[in-house]
Specification:
- It is a single chain.
- This protein has 3 domains: about 160 residues, Adenylosuccinate Synthetase, subunit A, domain 1 (Adenylosuccinate Synthetase, Chain A, domain 1); about 90 residues, Adenylosuccinate Synthetase, subunit A, domain 2 (Orthogonal Bundle); about 160 residues, Alpha-Beta Complex (Adenylosuccinate Synthetase, Chain A, domain 3).
- Helix content is about 35%, strand content about 20%.
- Strands 7-5-2-9-1-10-14-18-19 form a 9-stranded mixed sheet, with helices on both faces.
- It starts with a strand and ends with a strand.
- The structure holds guanosine-5'-diphosphate (GDP), 6-O-phosphoryl inosine monophosphate and magnesium ion.
- The site of guanosine-5'-diphosphate has 23 residues, from α1 and β3.
Length: about 425
């Protein structure tokens, strides 16, 4: 049975939640393998809106097994809040499991995220301030607290004391911040551990067992390719590997388990947070896209920066993720623009042209987009359910994007609802 990976191909918020939800209707298992509650995935079902941060989008299907893998960083307080709000809306969380190896976001990680961002001054990354970077730092420093520790009070108490002392020293002496009361942290997080205990299980084993039993598995990507710690716009990236390859290490399964990789893009580009954005529109068209598309962050509410579709970026994503197909969302948002532009290449400062996304910010600096123009469309396409129903100009636009990025477009989103999708 197929194992699909769904990954973001731009800077996040491509509508992965919607695509994952649609595919989850045919999946037995949905797995998150990286990131944390910096993600915000929206699912709309008959006007009912769900915003998921840590819990896999498959949770809305009552029989789907939902797994949070070892590569995720988990904020237990936020996680419990999400559990409660889903349960309050009648969504069962009984089929949810968390790997004991996943690292726990502690309160000092959140504090340090804010303090280090403030210290960077104008050179801040524009993080979600959810403590993601500092938690991954501790993981790789080998001093992190894991879900196993959280649900074992003695281990937790010891680790909070040993790690907490060092964190307090850094917070107070380096940043002039306020120290945490470690006994209070132990007491608070011990309670969270009690609540999490029934959910803890080995996700690597559960995923492999499902694979061997011929179940359909969906790996839910968070963040996106251009936010990847190595293949994104470093240092304006997140601290994990949102690439398809990240799924294997983040879940604990081998690459042969994967049969299909689906990339998700918007019909234009957005970005929250700082960093380069070659096709950014700081004008009326950019405002129109933001307003019509409702481009405000799902997690932080920040207005998203908007710009034209950048085929250089998506081509890069096709390569580094090994995409089999592409879902293009929010085509409906581009209605009523006279002309649509697509960046097909970058012109470098020396006048040469490249079709490959530069490896460093230094090389990207000074590059200007080379645009191809397309006539726009005025029709309301939100009720279209087949490719043939789309206006000619939409069809031409999508066909050219396919050519430019070198990947088949298998789905086109024409509205936020799970029904508003064209499958080809
Ligand atoms: P994710 O992080 O990739 O899951 O995306 P977000 O949920 O953060 O942001 C995508 C936004 O676009 C959400 O508000 C979705 O409901 C909405 N959306 C998804 N697909 C479409 C589409 O095809 N058309 C429109 N108009 N909105 C969409
Ligand atoms: P989904 O899964 C968009 C961005 C932040 C910031 C950078 C680093 O909803 O697509 P972090 O808090 O991760 O250290 O912030 O990454 N970022 C996202 N942008 N969508 C996301 O997730 C994001 N997760 C992180 O805005 O620029
Ligand atoms: Mg999002």
């Amino acid at each position: 049975m197929p194992s699909n990976i769904v990954v973001g191909t731009q800077w996040g918020d491509e509508g992965k939640g919607k695509i994952i939800d649609i595919i989850s209707s045919r999946a037995d298992v949905v797995v998150r393998s990286q990131g944390g509650n910096n993600a915000g995935h929206t699912v709309v079902n008959n006007g009912e809106v769900y915003k998921l941060h840590l819990i896999p989008s498959g949770i809305l299907y009552k029989d789907t097994l939902c797994l949070i893998g070892a590569g995720v960083v988990l904020d237990p307080k936020d996680f419990i809040g999400e559990l409660d709000s889903l349960e309050a809306r009648g969504v069962s969380t009984k089929n949810l499991k968390i790997d004991p190896r996943a690292h726990v976001v502690m309160p000092w990680h959140i504090a340090l995220d804010g303090l280090s961002e403030a210290f960077r001054g104008g050179k801040d990354i524009g993080t979600t301030k959810r403590g993601i970077g500092p938690t991954y730092m501790d993981k790789y420093e080998r001093c992190g607290i894991r879900v196993y520790d959280l649900v074992h009070p003695d281990v937790l108490a010891e680790k909070v004391q040993s790690t907490g002392k060092l964190k307090n020293k850094i917070i107070t002496e380096v940043y002039g911040g306020e120290a945490f009361d470690l006994d209070a942290v132990t007491a608070e997080y011990t309670e969270y551990g009690k609540r999490l205990l029934p959910y803890v299980d080995d996700v690597s084993v559960l995923t492999f067992d499902a694979y061997k039993a011929g179940k359909t598995i969906m790996f839910e990507g968070a963040q996106a390719t251009l936010l990847d710690i190595d293949f994104g716009t470093y240092p304006y990236v997140t601290s994990s590997h949102p690439l398809s390859a990240g799924v294997c290490v983040g879940t604990g399964v081998g690459p042969k388990v994967i049969t299909n990789v689906i990339g998700v893009a918007k019909a234009y580009t957005t970005r929250v947070g700082k960093g380069p954005f070659p096709t950014e529109l700081n004008d009326e068209i950019g405002n129109q896209i933001r307003e019509v598309g409702g481009e405000f962050g799902t997690t932080t509410g920040r207005p998203r920066r908007t710009g034209w579709f950048d085929a250089v970026i998506v081509r890069h994503s096709v390569r580094v993720n090994g995409l089999d197909s592409l879902a293009i969302n929010k085509l409906d948002t581009l209605a009523n623009l006279d002309t649509l532009k697509v960046c097909v290449a970058y012109k470098k400062p020396d006048g040469s042209v490249t079709e490959n996304f530069p490896a460093t910010l230094e090389e990207l600096e000074g590059c200007t987009p080379v645009y191809e123009e397309f006539p726009g469309f005025t029709e309301d396409i939100s009720a279209c359910r087949s490719f043939d129903e789309l206006p000619e100009n939409c069809k031409k636009y999508i066909a050219r994007l396919e050519e430019l990025v070198g990947c088949h477009v298998s789905m086109v989103g024409v509205g936020p609802d799970r029904a508003q999708i064209i499958e080809r």
